[in-house]
Amino acid sequence: MNDFKLDNEPKIRTGFKVPDGYFESLTNKVMQQIPEPEVKTIPLYRRFTTWYASAAAILLLAFGTGLYFKLGVQEAQPDNLAIENYLVYQANISNYDLYQNLDENDIKDLEQSVVISDDAIEEYISGQGNYEYYLNE
Amino acid sequence: MDDEKVFIAELLNPKTRETAFRQLVARYGKPLYNHIRTIVLNHDDADDVLQNTFIKIFRNLENFKGESKLFSWMYRIATNEAITFISQRAKKLGLSTEEAQQKAILNLKADDYFEGDALQLKLQQAIAILPEKQQLVFKMKYFEDIKYEEISEILGTSVGALKASYHHAVKKIEEYIVNN
What we know:
heterodimer, A: 137 residues, mainly alpha, 60% helix, B: 180 residues, Rna Polymerase Sigma Factor, Chain: A, Arc Repressor Mutant, subunit A, globular
């Protein structure tokens, strides 16, 4: 094989064979695997479900609206105690925030409603380390 | 060419698609099989890859822009499918693609669907040591007799580069056959 030239030789074939009848059955085999064309269908039961759901929603809405007006439902207003408790337990509202929202009338109201006895004032001042400084002033 | 345009229109029309696709499988089944078989070597694998190729062609008909010929477009899909298949086969075996191909050639000896002699086996072994592009060009030109212009469209390589690849491939194969 010293002067082997592919072009000089008769063409070398691949040597591959296929089973008998392979190409004849190929078309059907392939056609069975191709995806069916997609047709959008809505099943009848689903169509009815949509109608039932719509009718139920309208009835519920009508009933609800009638009930609302008939009973005259009022918006519930929280009472003062509830507001006070809310403010006390709301950690992010500082005393400063409270002072800012009080006007003179509020202060007067507070002066009248909150009665502080002289003993209580004395006790408070004596508890403060530098009360002598204020006395001298 | 006009016939091809009509055929493509039939493939794209949902009403005529199935009949036209049947014709396409009947017309191109054999050449595409031969092309795939030269790459994957064994019949069962070629059969799987061919069917996947047709399914892919069917699914992508809408994307076929008609910029290249239908023939080149289908060959490109078949080539990609076959190359993906042999690299996956090699990966599964934990071998390089070349090693896996040499193994597949040795298996041909016991293959019911291979009737080649010693020279035909040696030719397959010689092809398997070439770089991938040279292998493809050689197989398409030598075994399948596809024109350079068409190979150029399928592989996206210039005709000049293809001729050079084929020339190199022939030299290396001749050397291999003389020395082995």
